[in-house]
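Handout, section 4.2: multi-component inputs.
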Amino acid sequence: MKYVDEFRDGDLAKNIAANLAREADPKRHYRLMEFCGGHTHAISRYGLADLLPAHVRMIHGPGCPVCVLPIGRVDQATRLAREQGVILCTYADTVRVPASDNLSLMRAKASGADVRMIYSTQDALKVARDNPGREVVFLAIGFETTTPPTAVAIQQAAAEGLKNFSILCDHVLTPAAMHAILAVEGGVSIDGFVGPAHVSTVIGSKPYEPFADDYGKPVVIAGFEPLDVMQAILMLVRQINEGRAAVENEFTRAVTREGNLKAQQLVTDVFELRDVFEWRGLGSVPKSALKLRPKYAAFDAELKFKVDYVAVPDNKACECAAILRGQKRPQECKIFGTVCTPENPVGSCMVSSEGACAAHYSYGRFRESAA
Amino acid sequence: MSTVKPNYSRPLDLKNGRVDMSHGSGGRAMAQLISELFASAFDNEYLAQGNDGALLPPANGRLVMATDSHVVSPLFFAGGDIGCLSVHGTINDVAVMGAKPLYLSASFILEEGYPLADLKRIVESMAKASREAGVPIVTGDTKVVEQGKGDGVFITTTGVGVVRDGVNLSGDLAQPGDKILLSGTIGDHGMAILSQREGLMFSAPIVSDTAALHGLVAAMIDSGVALRVLRDPTRGGLATTLNEIAKQSGVGMMLQESSIAVNQPVEAACEFLGLDPLYVANEGKLIAICAPQDAARLLEIMRAHPLANAAAIIGEVREDAHGFVQMTTKLGGRRVVDWLAGEQLPRIC
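Output:
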């Protein structure tokens, strides 16, 4: 298939792998974090770990919208759906995230709540238009990639005077999460980042510059195709070998330094920063998430309904927090693959195929069996 | 002069009429629906017996029986409809047991208000599929549920077939070293259904592969090749079916991604929706597992059949206490091909 096969070429991958094998210094370790779940998925789905030298190790970062959603946020959605009789719309994987009381949106649906899986914010608007007698709430999750479509929906709803539509806003910000990872006291053992693909098409490469300039960590923005990831890893290894720390862009076919200004303008019009937002794994991070501006308050489900956020601690045995920070690997969690599986996820990293645990379980767990 | 009036009832309005509750009540309306629609379309000597069940002649060999309920939405899709699908699906379940399918039953659950014209199209499609396959529908049942309690039409078919002596196929017979063959491209049916669902129209045509595979199976068995396992990878796709076999046989598998064919529109649609064709349903494909020395000959026989001309050897069975189905990717890496977790697609068969 054109525009896809070019980026999945096995021979080219072997070339890059050979360069990596030649250039990666055997006397040192390279610990590289791919921030995005999209990269985690590509690495696992294509078995890229097999193409890397043993001393180049990928650490899965927190860039999976479903994974960083704390239990309390999912509880807000299940409570709305179960107690307030709203039609709750959300993107697919979100319905499987475990919430309190052994619930998830999927289980809430099975017990009678009206939960609908949608593909786009336009679908949610349509549900609202088609059900004028019911309240429709869109559980808006995701990083900067999914935020502009939510902004468009809010503007449309406002223009149409749609009174029965609102959102539970859980949109979060990538650079803030990267700061949170790097700001750990005593430093972190991460030598560089594979930077986000789709997020960067929106925000550009500029917001990553402080990570290179202030923290001295190289960042290479990469597309989600396997060759993109391989090339970015090679670029990171080269920067590290040369003792440089810069923001480089492998994904030039889609990402500029300034990003998508129109999308940024949309987001600025509709959203403002939250003072603080609790992330799963990263805890409370200041200025790391968005909420609706006061002029759009009528569409804010947190104001429209009585659904206060109540923080809920994670399951004690679950290591999602350490895994999301890159401090542990999925297989180092005691309940990985036993109590916690994709069918019965305990932690959120086991839910989405972009989650570190689900990706390792679904694609990579033969590695331990061989060891 | 006789006082007996001729028994006249107005024919079913197959143009504008709709299913109503009386069509499932056991009374005259039901008898009329059965005789004017079902019996006339399915017409065969067993159905003509007119009894509660079909009296069938003695069978020559061990019997195989399989049943399958069909709840696909939409009912009509590119390449087929619920009618032919319900015939093909059950014939295939019987056939992959190594049996020659002989008879089918069909049970309908109709929703009040469903247009009779559409029901007629479905029934005619079933009749055509059954005639082409040479497997008659010999008995059936009809129920009607109130509006809102069904989704137009649900069809359950049951098939009976006979296995000749010496043919022993089972999911627990795969052995390390065996070769795994696949009869063609994957994901066509599931993506045909999905692409037709509301709001997800693709301009490139994706056509369901729904087909009866008993002719292909007969050719494979008649060749004398020692088959160990046959199975049709329907719901859950190729990945799920291979995991089922691996579990039953207590073995692992290693596949080659480059040998698994996907039609380009299917690949594009999967890419667009973030789906993996390995998990998308097929309705006209089969997986065969045989001893390594028989693989080349089996492949040749499959490729000579119109329903398997794109057949390929896609991997081999290996010893593995974990029962992992693994794959060498096109990039040269390795991955597990796991069971489908949760649900990849809405109702597809």
